[in-house]
Amino acid sequence: MSDRAADTVKAEAHFTLVDYWKFKDALKSKIHLAAGKKLAGRSSYEQAVIPFYEGQYYFNSDPGKASAAFKEAIRKLTPFRDKRAYEKLAAAWYNYALMNKDAKGYDFITKITLEKAIPYAERARNPVMVGHYYTQLATILMNNAQFSKSLMYNRKAVSILEKAAPKSSAMLFAYLNGVSVCCYTEQSEKALYLLHKAKKLLEPYPDSVNNTLYYYNETLYYTTVNALDKALVSAGMGIVMAEKYHQEQMVQQLLFRKYDIYSRQKDFQNARHILMDIVKDRTLMRNSIDKAMIYGELAKTNAALKDYRSAYSWLDVQKKLNDSINSGESRLKINELETRYRTAENRRKIANLQSQNRQAALNSKNERLYSGILAIGCLLLFAILGFAIVNARSKRKLAEQKEINYRQQLEELERKQQLKVTKAMLDGEERERERVARDLHDGLGGMLAGVKISLSSWAEDQSEIEENKRFRKTVDQLDSAVTELRRIARNMVPETLLKFGLETALKDLCEFYMRNGLEISCEFFDIRKDIPLNVQLNIYRIIQELVSNAIRHADAARILVQCSQNESVIFITFEDDGAGYDPSAFKNTKGMGLENLKNRIAYLKGQLEIVSAPGEGTTVNIELNTVTDG
């Protein structure tokens, strides 16, 4: 081996050690970075990997410098077309996204993972990297409450890694990520199974830095099954190891798990102490959403300790931060502008087709006039006249056929345009529901909670008021108002649907409407879990409208809701034993509820059948398609 080749091998070894020591010992990582740069040759590839490892060195200490280094590595590595370059590009893109998470959010990381990291790992034909990035994608989705999609990608990662690298760290991360998702979805048995798999992988490596992640998930599992003392022990062991390896983020995450445990044990003093330490450390305060959540927990904990003044103060800070977060929603208008642009383009096409139709009609009229003139003025040229007439008829038929074709194109364009307008209207309606629900919950709900806290704090200093019946009644009415407001907010945005899927959400909806004198039965057959969320939401709104109409207008005592699925088609049968009505009497009526129902069914390319008669109840049959154009 030549001296140059030997230096290259040594440089690669030093660079590998930069990555190894970056979390354990920053000084050693820096020493190996300098040694690797010194031994690296002048070839373009060897120079291209230097900024990648500079990014690895700054990864845990300076996100700004790390981001710039990864970006430079991407620029230098992109021209190369071999396995090692593709692997480095996959890692550089993903790490660049991580460094910009606070500024650009989870959407940016998801986009980079799907469009850059995974494709480059697949080009490199490296199944371990592919499995690793599927795990990372599952983590992102889990952090954004997309649990069904998270489980899907995590299963994909586990399937790949159990074949390609069953004892690798990537396999460990896939198992532990699965534990977290299963805990959040209350699947404790599956979580325990994956936790045992992870523990078996870690047993030969008691000093591995990955043990901290294991203890975090073990804490989460014990908390889920309410074994809180065991959870505290696991959290404590994880914190000791995370501090040893300078894993600041993990230390704070484990501390938050301890806060949750103390809160569940009603040890609010210790819970508040931990939250205040988290605020002072600021590691978890970099993300606005996490910060708002921690402020909310401080308000709740102080209220439990009857420190109403502090509770109100934290609640006020949270409200201001939530207002700041919500003000960023102007970015959603980009979608509205894009929809308007496409609408304008379609209108332009329709106008062009109409112009062509008018021209075709004018041409046809001119041909008929020309034929008439020839018939009167060219009697001596009968043969030529006959030819002209045949030719004119042929052109007229062609023009008429073109007109028919243009009309069909117009109708198709109008149908597509109507579908897009319907989708934009439904999307806007759902965004408005979400905005109003958030304003009610975070705005008015926070104000009412603040009023109650202030009132309770004031009453503590007024012993005669504390025992006053009218005062107690007023406080109880305020509690009822807060409860009713939160019920309305939940009804506007079906949180159960987002977390647990269509079937659970519909059962919850039916149970919500049931009362004495009204029985609602729900039956489900072969409903799949992978129905797109916008389709699930529209099905939920359709059934919500049907149930609401039956209760308000039909005076029904029994309601039956049946949902079944055959491949991409959903069948809904809705029956009630109410007063019934004559459908023909409402044929041309455009009530808001019925119009919304028809719009949602049309958007899902569905069909609606209503069978009813006065005094005989109502049956509604609906057929929907889960695959839409938009």
From TrEMBL:
Segments spanning the bilayer are 369-392
Q: 4Fe-4S among the record's keywords?
A: no
Histidine kinase domain location: 435-628
Point out the signal peptide segment: none
Q: Which UniProt keywords apply?
A: ATP-binding, Kinase, Membrane, Nucleotide-binding, Phosphoprotein, Transferase, Transmembrane, Transmembrane helix, Two-component regulatory system
Q: Name one GO cellular component term.
A: membrane
- Which top EC class is given? transferase
Pfam families associated with the record: HATPase_c, HisKA_3
Q: Which GO terms describe its molecular function?
A: ATP binding; phosphorelay sensor kinase activity; protein dimerization activity
Report the catalytic activity: ATP + protein L-histidine = ADP + protein N-phospho-L-histidine
PROSITE patterns attached to this UniProt entry: HIS_KIN
Matching entries from CDD domains are given as: HATPase_UhpB-NarQ-NarX-like
Q: Which InterPro entries match?
A: HATPase_C_sf, HATPase_dom, His_kinase_dom, Sensor_HK_TwoCompSys, Sig_transdc_His_kin_sub3_dim/P, TPR-like_helical_dom_sf
Name the EC number(s). 2.7.13.3
Q: Which PANTHER family match?
A: NITRATE/NITRITE SENSOR PROTEIN NARX-RELATED, NITRATE_NITRITE SENSOR PROTEIN NARQ
The name of this protein is: histidine kinase
